[in-house]
Amino acid sequence: MNKIVLITGATSGIGKACAYQFAANGYSLIITGRRAERLETIKADIMDEFGIKVYSLRFDIRDHKAVEEAIEQLPAAWRKIDILINNAGLAVGLSRIQDGLIEDWERMINTNIKGLLYISRQIMPLMIARQSGHIINIGSIAGKETYPFGNVYCATKHAVDSITKAMRIDMLEYGIKVTQIAPGAVETEFSNVRFKGDDAKVNSIYQGFEPLHPEDIADAAYYCASLPPHVNINDLLIMPTAQASAGLIHREI
Questions:
Q1: CA quadruple 8, 179, 108, 218: dihedral sign
Q2: Strand 134-138's sheet: what is its strand order?
Q3: Which of 66, 79, 154, 171 is deepest in the core (most CB within 10 A)?
Q4: What is the pLDDT of residue 190?
Q5: How many domains does the chain have?
Q6: CA 30 from chain center: how many Å?
Q7: For the whole prediction, is pTM greater than 0.85?
Q8: Range of the structural domain that residue 135 is part of
Q9: Of 29, 2, 39, whose CA–CA distance to 218 is shortest?
Q10: Which residues contact 136 (CB under 8 A, 6 or more apart)?
Q11: How far, rounded to the nearest angstrom, does the alpha carbon of residue 128 sit from its chain's CA centroid?
Q12: How far is CA 73 from CA 70, 76, 181, 202, in A?
């Protein structure tokens, strides 16, 4: 079998773009997500277009038991995971912290922090046993800066930044690479989720400038993964040309 990459949150956005990017470069894929129909559609399309092997796993990254069972049931050949792309993540709501909804906080914490830890905890021992592997965590500019109304979402992405550094320390003796890719504004379903389907608000986010596209981040992920064994990109902050910081975007309107 070719090298294997496991991608969480592969049914849309950056995760989906990563699936196509790595497939185009001959990787076998394990794609995960909650939406079974999307997983199967992407799986069939990639297999048809690129002729590579794809294994799909449907589970909720927030469910520790489901994550554990999904990885444990992988056939032996599929357990030799070379790259883990921790992409699954979201923002929900945009309010001051004193007005925040507890259910929104829990959804972000459970997905962005605990979900990343759950899947990583299952994959890291497999990499350690082989003394080889690469973990790529998709962080955010929100993990570098705290911006108005970002509060808990920013906190979760700061946690990803810290966890990435901790992983790098603990994986060092095993020769396992750990990379964080931290994008600025990327046009995906991210804002649809954050604004809970409020199209007017979603449309305003990307108005007047060209944001990053999911394929831009997928290109960066593949670049990081394709470097020689002695080279690792620790931390990669990627912004649209029109964006200088989390809250500063030049708009042509």
A1: negative
A2: 54-58, 28-33, 4-7, 83-86, 134-138, 177-183, 235-238
A3: 154
A4: 64
A5: 1
A6: 14
A7: yes
A8: 4-249
A9: 29
A10: 83, 84, 85, 86, 179, 180, 181, 221, 224, 225
A11: 21
A12: 5, 9, 29, 39
pLDDT at 147: 95
**CB of 232 closer than 8 Å to CB of 179:** yes
Terminus-to-terminus CA distance in the chain, angstroms? 51
**What's the pLDDT score for residue 184?**
97
Q: Which residue has the tokens 């470097």?
A: 227
Which residues are CB-contacts of 63 (< 8 A; sequence separation ≥ 6)? none
Q: Which of 20, 118, 153, 222 is catalytic?
A: 153
Q: How far, in Å, CA of 32 to CA of 229, rounded?
A: 27
- Helix, strand, or coil here: 107? helix
Alpha-carbon distance values, 95 to 16, 27, 145, 179, 194 (Å): 29, 41, 17, 31, 10
Three-state SS string over 10-32 comes to: CCCHHHHHHHHHHHHCCCEEEEE
- The whole-angstrom separation of Cα 210 and Cα 8 is 26
Q: Specify whether 223 is catalytic.
A: no
- Tally of residues, the chain: 253
Residue 183 and residue 137 in contact, taking contact as beta carbons nearer than 8 Å:
no
CA distance 152 to 98: 11
Mean pLDDT for back-to-back runs of 10 residues, the chain (253 residues):
95 97 98 95 98 97 98 96 97 94 97 98 98 98 96 98 98 98 89 67 84 97 98 98 95 87
Phi, psi of 56 (to 5 degrees): -110, 140
Give the CATH number for residue 102.
Answer: 3.40.50.720
Of 147, 182, 149, whose CA–CA distance to 163 is shortest? 182
Q: Which pLDDT score, from 0 to 100, does residue 178 have? A: 98
